[in-house]
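Notes on consecutive records. When two proteins share a document, each keeps its own sequence and its own token line. Never mix them. Below: protein one.
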Amino acid sequence: MNTESNNPLQPGTMSNSLIQALIDNYRQNHLSAINTALGIQDAHSIWFDLPKLKNFIAKIEEEAAKVNPATSDEDLGIRFYYATYPKQENWSIMDSHPVPVEYAGKHTLVMIPTVKKASETGELVDFDFNPFHTVEGKSLALNAHKAKGKGEDPDTGLGENSGTLIPPAPPMGTSY
């Protein structure tokens, strides 16, 4: 087995040297540029507990099945968007999603469900999926701001981002 590269035939395994190289690339280039340009010490990682991730996956499966019972596990996925918390002076937008104010201006991830669906050209594509918005009983695999659900709050979406940012949390326990 080649220990210097990720083996696509064994999902979920990577060599430690590849993991370290990828993380070092980020820290030496992107993180360094962000910290310098913004004058902050941005987060370099985010931690999610396993129950939160499992619950999010179960919620995706549950809501997708409500919209279309024929949806299979192979049709579903999660897209990870890079995101940034608002600046401290705009922190009030976080009122409905409380996280520590120490996260102001730092990187985060937002996880959004996807569903595999044929595009207009017939190609199978993983579309962002908001199971809370439907039109004529069909699921919308569209951006939430385009959804026009019947009787649904147009601002409701299925997403997750409440993890622990490092920093400001101490890096104890991290290996990379």
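Protein two starts on the next line and is unrelated to protein one.
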Amino acid sequence: MPEDLDAETLAYAHRMFDLARAGATDELAAQVDAGLPVNLTNGKGDTLLILAAYHARPETVAALLARGADHRRANDRGQTALAAAVFRQNPDTVRALLDAGADPDHGNPSAVETARFFDLPAMLTALGRG
């Protein structure tokens, strides 16, 4: 986030990221509906979608996707929401992202590479690579 943001704006943004992590779907969706950028990104490049996926919040992931969240975005480490969902072994989140068109081979490491590296055969199957 830009360095020139005031403390109140930064606190608000941090709260939005916390909502994504916590799976506070209704509140976060209401904020996006009211104008919060659905692809808001923190200082590490994590989007609301990546955080919701990493914390295994499939309802939040679905709500963000329905509001236009970009599943192709990667954080500063090259990780996507799909790779995060695979790492956390959450099939509901993986399915929501795949249904939205997420590419299992996108990112570095990609979701497929993540599943192979951590020996997650169920996730490889979920990705259609099992």
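For the record: The radius of gyration is 14 Å.
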